[in-house]
Amino acid sequence: MSKTKTKQARRELKRDGARKIAAHQRKTAKAATISTNAPKPPKKKQKMQAQPVQASQKHDVPFGEYEHILLVGEGDFSFARSLAIEHGCANVTATSFDSDTEVREKYPNFESIHDELTQLTPPVPIHHSIDATKLSSYKHLRCTREDDDEGQDGWDTICFMFPHTGGLSTDVNRQVRANQALLVAFFKSCLETTSAKQRLQILASQVHKNHPSPLRPRSQFLRMGGRIVVTLFEGEPYTLWNVRDLARHAGLKVVESWKFDASQYPGYKHVRTLGTIEGGGAWKGEDRDARTYVFEKIPLVADSDEEKELEKETGVKKVKERTRTRTKRPRKGSDSDDD
Fold this sequence. Notes:
The chain is an alpha/beta fold and 339 residues long. It has a domain at 69-198 and 221-277 and 284-297: 3-Layer(aba) Sandwich (Rossmann fold), CATH 3.40.50. It has helices at 3-37, 78-86, 100-106, 110-118, 172-191, 196-207, 243-250, 304-314, 319-327, and strands at residues 68-72, 91-95, 126-127, 155-161, 222-233, 252-259, 290-297. Strands 3-2-1-4-5-7-6 form a seven-stranded mixed sheet, with helices on both faces. Strand 1, helix 2 (78-86) and strand 2 form a beta-alpha-beta unit. This is 25S rRNA (uridine-N(3))-methyltransferase BMT5-like domain-containing protein. It comes from Phaeosphaeria nodorum (strain SN15 / ATCC MYA-4574 / FGSC 10173) (Glume blotch fungus).
């Protein structure tokens, strides 16, 4: 065989080898594409569970050891027990809407909790048959703060955990309206603004603290700057209550809100309005997502009719006019009284 034919044979062998390698690469790439585009088996559905609150997201407990705290609408009083014993809150007063007999019938564990609270030094005052919408009408619930340097009376914090009217109706809209009415009446009772006369009393004291008008109230149920704490479940129908808007409309300042963490209150158990279910049941309120809202008491703002009534009864000029007088700037070239 000549040298020329030998070279041609070698070149043909190289070409055949290159074709085989290219064909193998195309086959491998095609197989990889098919496996990538192949439909994946469906995943099993996962059950939706409430996510635990991470340590970095936890909010401090909004109750101080020496604050004067009024608890409203207690069930078995396990929340009051947690504040007094686990958190060391020394000035807690706890109330329930139910009578003493009803509480003992609904919640069997109240007996032991009652003994713990009443054996403390000093004991935790427990009051039954207290309507949250008429709080300020109960004279024995008023908080006198003799040790306060500012000379102000009133509670530091009023707390209503999971307010609910109960199963008054199966209609969602009626339930929403009923619970909104409950919250509004509760807010106004804390602020003592249930009636027009009460509002005028407070407005008169704001206009002139030393004015000798009979409209001036003797003391405050919730001190100025005091807080109202409300905890509600998240999701409908609770979000339909619009608790923030209700509080603003009542004259409160919305301060903050955060996810409620029941584990921060050892010994606390959420109970139903209707009472404990025999056998415990599968429903546990502590495992449901909930949110705590904080509102602050701020000075009331008088409307035009109230301004006229105040001027008529007290002889004090309108608040708006007094404000304009205080903030009026001196004209150019005039002397200032600030020297």
